[in-house]
Write a structure and sequence with these properties.
With 333 residues, this protein is α+β, with helices and mostly antiparallel strands. The protein has eleven helices and 13 strands. The strands form three sheets. A seven-stranded mixed beta sheet has the order 8-9-6-4-7-12-13, sandwiched between helices. The chain has a three-stranded antiparallel beta sheet with strand order 1-2-3. A three-stranded antiparallel beta sheet has the order 5-11-10, covered by helices on one side. α11 links the parallel β12 and β13.
Length: 333
Amino acid sequence: MTIKSEGEKVGAAGEQLPMSALAVSTDAPPINPLQSFLDRFWLQLESEFWNASDTPPVLAHFTRLKTAQSILQQGSIRQTNPRCGNDKQEIERAYSVAQECVNKYAPDFADAINWRMSYSGFEHYVACFSGANSTEELDNLNSWQAYGDDGRGAAIILNSQILIGDIKSSSSNVIRRVSYDFSELREHVRRLLIWAVPIISDLDEDSQLDAQLHVGAQIQNVCAYFKDESFSYENEVRVLRLDTNRSDIEFHETDEFFLPFTKLPLSVGRTLNADIFENEQLTGAVQACMVGPSLDQDRATAVMASTLFSLGHEDPRKAVLRSMKPYRSNRSS
C-alpha cells in the first residue's frame, strides 16, 4: 500500500481510501483524555517548577548525634509529613496563599482543588537540608541551635549532584530549593491554573473531578517548598516523596506521640573525604559529617569515626569535621 498524496491512501488495486482508514489499520489504543491531561500537567509542572539546576553544591542535614550515627549505619534519612513538622503554620500559610489563587483563577473547581490541597496529603513526605557553596559556609550557629541539638549534635554533609543523580533514578522523589517569597508561589499557581482550567473544562464530568483532585495534590506538593522569609538563612533544599504506599510508612517515638516517616535512601561513600571538591572519586552522596560546637569534640570525633570505620570506610577520621563556631550550650550533658 502506498501514499498517493496528502489526504489520500491508495490500496493495492489503486482504490482511494479515506484518511480514517489510517486509524483503523493501526493497533494504537485510543487516547484517554484524562490521562493525556495528567501527563501534560506533569510536564508543565516539571518545566515550571521542578528544577534542581540551582541546588547548592554542598548540603547538610543537622540533627542529634545519635540520629546522625543511625543515618550513616542505615544508609537512609527520615522524610516526615509536612503536617507533622515542628511548625504546622509554615505549611498552612502556603496553603492559604495557594487557596486564594485557586478561588480567583479556578472558581468553578475551587471546592475540589482546595479540599484535596488542604485536607489530605498524608502520602507526601519531605527530607530537609541546608545548602551552601562550602562546608565552612554550612557551619553556622542558627542551624546548630535550631536543628543540631543546640550545638550538641552533628551534621551529615552530602554532595548534592550525587544526591540528585540518586533521586533521578527513583521517580517517587523530587528535589528543589525552598523559596522564601510567597509572591513566587502565587505566580506558579496562577500559571498552572490558567493552563489547566480550559483543558479540565473540556473533560467529561467524572474526569473533571479526577483532574481537579490531581491539580490540588500537585499544588500541595508545590506548597511544601515555600517558607516565611525569616527562615531564609537556612538556604533550605527539600527532597519530596510524591507517592507513598501505606506499607512504606513507619513510626518512631517522640516525647508526645509516634511520628510517621518514610525513608529516603542515601548512598554512603566508602572513601569519604572532607575535601569534597578535591576528591575525584566520590562514591556516595554522603561525603562527610561535622560534629557540633558544644560537644566534647575529641570524643564526638572518635564516636563518629568509629561508626564510619564499622561501615568499612578507608580513612574515617578524615571524614569527620569539627564546627569552628565559639558556642557553648547552656544545656547540661
